[in-house]
Amino acid sequence: MFRPDKGQKVFRPIFLRYKLVMKFGSTLLLILTLLFSSCVGEQNFFAGKGPQSHEIIKLWWTLFGIASFVTVTVSFFLVRGALKKNRDDSVNDEALGKGLVYGLIGTISLLLVIIFSTLRLGHPPEYSEGNFELKVVGKMWWWQAHYYDPEGNYLFETANEIVIPTGRPIRIKLVSDTVIHSFWVPALAGKVDMLPGRENFLVVKADEEGVFRGQCAEFCGTQHALMSFYVKAVSEDQFSKWKEKQGKKYKRIKSHALGERVFINSGCVKCHTIRGLGVATDAKYYGPDLTHFGSRSHIAAATYPNNKGHLGGWILDPQGAKPGNYMPATPLSGKELNALLEFLEALK
Asked: What is the DSSP string of 290-333?
């Protein structure tokens, strides 16, 4: 009876120490798994398609290296202390002095990291007044993009899909007329908040062509998670053609006369503008401009692909597709719905 009791007293603390080590290792593995899960996909933090994103990636790896060193060092002493036999729990002056020194070193290191981070990210791409300005407005829960010429004259607006030329900086004015949002395109630049009553600015530059997903990075209500958008970087020639096409007004097509009447008579025109057909009259519940709606790849702020199936479901039951949004249901017959879908699809 004596030996098992003695063995149990020795085994139990050792078992608890190894259990602590295993818990720590499992937690660290989980953190690393979640951390690197953002390394793939169209909203890729590590894509690095612009000068600002390159700087952010360099800074991230630098901070990751520092944090890894600190983690390994602290873990070493933690495990060493947990497995150490004959530990002395008393605190003497020497141990207290070491603790103060280590704390001071950590504080100075954090201050140096803050200074380094500020200097690293404090230089956006150079912007000249000859480049045009783009204004993005944060709505509930979608994005409105206004385009201007180099002289500042308004050209047109679009929604949830922003097209920019490659190879030159684009100055984006960021505002919100509802609540606080945050504009973030991980592959191109860092986050910038959008505050009601205040204008913030972001200069982005795409080094190569591509489609980059963006996201609201500030909780803004029910559909914050589904408030996304796309930035399409194209060549100068493609951008000029796209801009010319977007500036054109709608021209009536006889084959879509029924769809046009449904759009007007069902109340869509109250919230949605189609230049050349009708201008939205409801300022409070103003929706996206639909003049070239058929050319967009997604609907509902990049929530669903732009096809007849998703669009039909969105028109009939927008709350079922994206609860909390301001668009009301539009009851239509099968014939009316098909005519409206074909009409919207033709708006390119």
From this structure: -TTGGG-SEETTTTEESSHHHHHHHHH-HHHHSTT-SPPP----
Count, in order, helices (H) and strands (E) of the chain. 8, 12
Tell me the C-alpha to C-alpha distance, in Å, between residue 245 and each of 76, 83, 120, 239, 249.
63, 71, 39, 10, 9
141: preceding bond cis by omega (within 30 degrees): yes
Burial letters 138-172, b for 16+ CB under 10 A, else e: bbbbbbbbbbeeeeeeeebbbbbbbbbbbebbbbb
Q: What Cα–Cα distance (Å) separates residue 139 from each residue in 50, 125, 223, 224? A: 26, 27, 11, 11
Count of Cβ atoms closer than 10 Å to residue 232 Cβ: 17
Query: Rg of the chain's alpha carbons, rounded to an integer?
Result: 28
Digit-coded pLDDT (tens) for 64-106: 888 888 888 888 877 777 777 666 666 566 767 777 887 788 7
245-293: pLDDT as tens digits: 999 999 888 888 999 999 989 888 888 999 988 777 666 668 899 999 9
Alpha helices, DSSP H, located in the chain: 2-36, 51-83, 93-121, 236-246, 257-265, 308-316, 318-321, 334-345
Burial of residue 247, with CB atoms counted within 10 A of its CB: 0-12 exposed, 13-18 middle, 19 or more buried: middle
Strand partners, 231: 162, 212
- Domains belonging to the chain, first-starting first, are 12-87+124-239 (2.60.40.420), 254-345 (2.60.40.420)
Of 325, 302, 30, 341, the residue nearest 162 (C-alpha): 302
Side-chain-side CA neighbours of 61 within 13 Å: the count stands at 9
What is the pairing mode between strands 133-138 and 170-176?
Answer: parallel
Q: What are residue 299's DSSP bridge partners? A: 304
Tokens of 134: 């783009």
